[in-house]
Design goal:
mainly alpha
Length: 60
Amino acid sequence: MTSLLAAFALMLVLEGLLPFVAPKVWRETFRRITEMADGQLRFFGLTSMLIGLGLLFLVK
């Protein structure tokens, strides 16, 4: 359970980095994401999950 909370905390830190460092870039990127088609968003989500799983396997 501790590892899961640590992973969640790290995710929040990483996701907050771009809006903190470059809010204009983050806003433009977010606007572009909202204009993507559902299929594109699903592909992006699947790719992110696969990269995350790959990293988990490398770490463990």
